Amino acid sequence: MDLEATLCELAPRLLRYCLGFAGDRPRAEDGAQEALTALVARWRRHGPPDSPQAFAFTVARRRMRRAILRQRLLEPLEKVLSGRGPNPDPEERALARADLKRTLEALHSLPRGHREALLLVAAGELETASAAKVLGISKSALKMRVHRARRSLHVLLEDH
Amino acid sequence: MTENNRPLSEIDSALDATLRRALEPDQAAASRLVRSALTERRAPRPRLRRLVTATAVAVMAVIALLTLELRRPGAPPSGDPRREMPRQKVPARARITEPTPASAPATLRISNEDGPVIVTTSAGSKLVFLPLVFFDQPNPGDAS
């Protein structure tokens, strides 16, 4: 198993997963960066983990949850201090691409457990066993969540 | 199982592909992340911040323990004695409504714990304990 090849293979998957989780690119890149750096540190010190992708996605999930929590706590304060006006910045305009915005809105209307399961399997392209390990649930519970998330997302995206 | 004559597995695959397409990052971002990770450019957590966080947690734990200790029953009151001292109910005085034969042993049978307590002796006499008054422990400063 080659470290660089593993990183190149995981990076886009992690970015997709983190973007679906966080909803904005800077936070997604931070989360993916943290996960890849943690994997590199672990690999170099103790050798490759049993499942590098499960390791990386577990770290990414933990970081993203913390980032979301921090965002919720600090967002009102940041808005007051930054004096953000009504005009969207270039990044917000870029994100306003219809497909991404629509998909993110639909994703964030799903229950959290279903959303995480779907993101791991669909966006992160993890196998069922690895995704179940990341979430700490059984394979059958994961399959059920993914199935329900797909049904709900399918309905939401068709409605738009 | 099908939906609109398409097998569900096909619908699921199409949905997953839609999701991946919508969330697809640009290749430059992915390459940049790999390069940064390989140089292990991880922002080290400042020692000072960790020290401050650990100290704050320890101080809060000590305050919580002290608060629990002060609120423990029997702990010395910190302020108003009326707020600090536990309320104790002193049982009411008994009032015997019927005389009982001195030789008859009493059998205690409590018919109502909350209302008047009725004690029936084996001789058939009844003693009624009326809750005349329940009062707190007298405060040191109050007149009796």
Could you please describe the fold and organization of this structure?
The complex is a heterodimer of chains A (160) and B (144). With 160 residues, chain A is mostly helical. Chain A has helices spanning 3-22, 25-46, 52-82, 90-95, 98-108, 112-123, 128-135, 139-159. In chain A, helix 6 crosses helix 8. The model of chain A has no long low-confidence stretch (mean pLDDT 85). Chain B has four helices and four strands. Chain B is elongated. With 144 residues, chain B is mainly alpha-helical. Chain B has a two-stranded antiparallel sheet with strand order 1-2. In chain B, strands 3-4 form a two-stranded antiparallel sheet. Classes of the chains: A mainly alpha (160), B mainly alpha (144). The A-B interface holds A 3-4, 7-8, 11-12, 14-16, 19-20, 25, 28-29, 32-34, 36-41, 44, 99-100, 102-104, 107, 118, 121-123, 125, 150, 153-154, 157 and B 11-12, 15-16, 18-25, 27, 29-31, 33-34, 36-38, 40-42.
Summary tags:
heterodimer, A: 160 residues, mainly alpha, 82% helix, B: 144 residues, two-stranded antiparallel ribbon, 8% strand
What's a quick, concise take on this entry?
The complex is a heterodimer of chains A (160) and B (144). With 160 residues, chain A is mainly α.
Which SSEs are present, and which pair or pack?
The complex is a heterodimer of chains A (160) and B (144).
Chain A (H helix, E strand, L loop, with lengths): L2 H20 L2 H22 L5 H31 L7 H6 L2 H11 L3 H12 L4 H8 L3 H21 L1
Helix pairs in contact in A: 1-2, 1-3, 1-6, 2-3, 3-7, 6-7, 6-8, 7-8
Chain B lengths: L1 E2 L2 E2 H16 L3 H12 L8 H25 L9 H4 L32 E4 L5 E4 L15
Antiparallel strand pairs in B: 1-2, 3-4
